[in-house]
């Protein structure tokens, strides 16, 4: 997707009030691609890599800051951040540009639309591979929309891939409730199609969306919906999926020994040092983690 979404925003809510034009950036020659299991995996890895770009990570830091832990350095004279600080955001502000997230969404939509066809071409690409890849891409797409709807409120909801410039590019924005319901429907549909975290032992346990990662995203989305709409059913779903994750993690890493620290319900806890080091050190992918973007030499690339 190309440079696109310049929007008029008001205050730190960054709420858009115009329709958006979405333009594709990646054009794949379909007759020459989508032939093998490797082709699909390259597209899956590419979607994760797009999510890990420095431009997106910087936006996430700015969008999700809810306190004073981030302070402006006025010696930098950063126009865009100063606009946000003063609640006077212009349409040219780089932090009001959604194009990088829609590039991830389009990559996910491509895999979702084309993955099944490869099963008829490559005998090594099985139904389980297809279901897992589609589940991962729907989870990653859902994460993108979850960021967008929390920060910008009304956003375009695009569920089909853009493959060429002849497609209609003007897309109306949808209300937050519509986007959130789509996220929940997608995640509920695919929640058991991803691999179990226990089935993976290398970086892919955290680098790809696994079952526990999808459960965690579902719990987060239900919690957000419950807090906005006061929906008791959603609060119950938060508890349900949180308990599922806790059970799975405890089973994955063994029952507690007599000398290990336990919480009030008798569940095993890591030491504070283990938690901090494994979660925030340069190694990452600690046992407490459910999903992490993977980097090699400061580049957002899956470690394949």
Give the rounded overall mean pLDDT: 78
Total DSSP E strands? 4
User: From the helix content, strand content and strand pairing, which structural class follows?
Assistant: mainly alpha
Instruction: Choose one word for the global shape.
Output: globular
Distance between the termini: 25 Å
Strand coverage percent = under 5%
Helical residues, percent: 40-55%
**Topology as H/E string?**
EHHHHHEEEHHHHH
Q: State the major sheet.
A: 2 strands, antiparallel
Q: State the helix count.
A: 10
Query: How do the strands line up in the largest sheet?
Result: 1-3
Global Rg: 20 Å
Please mark out the parts with pLDDT under 50 across 5 or more consecutive residues, or reply none.
1-26
């Amino acid at each position: 997707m190309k440079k696109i979404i310049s929007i008029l925003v008001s205050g730190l809510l960054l709420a858009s009030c115009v329709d958006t034009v979405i333009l594709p950036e990646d054009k794949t020659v379909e007759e020459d691609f989508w032939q093998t299991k490797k082709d699909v995996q390259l597209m899956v890895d590419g979607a994760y890599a797009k999510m890990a770009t420095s431009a997106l990570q910087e936006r996430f830091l700015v969008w999700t800051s809810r306190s004073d832990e981030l302070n402006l350095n006025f010696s930098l004279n950063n126009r865009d951040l100063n606009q946000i600080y003063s609640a006077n955001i212009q349409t040219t502000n780089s932090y009001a540009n959604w194009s990088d997230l829609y590039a991830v969404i389009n990559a996910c939509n491509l895999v979702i639309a084309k993955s099944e066809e490869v099963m008829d071409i490559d005998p090594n690409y099985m139904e389980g591979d297809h279901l897992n890849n589609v589940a991962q891409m729907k989870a990653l797409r859902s994460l993108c929309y979850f960021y967008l709807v929390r920060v910008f409120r009304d956003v375009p909801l695009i569920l089909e891939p853009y493959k060429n410039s002849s497609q209609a590019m003007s897309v109306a924005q949808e209300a937050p409730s519509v986007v959130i319901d789509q996220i929940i429907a997608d995640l509920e549909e695919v929640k058991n199609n991803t691999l179990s975290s226990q089935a993976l032992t290398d970086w892919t346990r955290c680098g790809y969306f696994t079952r526990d990662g999808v459960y965690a995203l579902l719990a987060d989305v239900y919690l957000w919906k419950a807090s906005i709409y006061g929906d008791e059913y959603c609060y119950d779903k938060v508890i349900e999926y949180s308990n599922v994750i806790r059970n799975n993690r405890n089973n994955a890493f063994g029952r507690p020994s007599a000398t290990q620290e336990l919480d009030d319900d008798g569940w095993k806890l890591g030491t504070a040092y283990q938690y901090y080091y494994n979660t925030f050190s340069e190694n990452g992918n600690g046992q407490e983690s459910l999903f992490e973007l993977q980097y090699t030499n400061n580049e957002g690339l899956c470690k394949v």
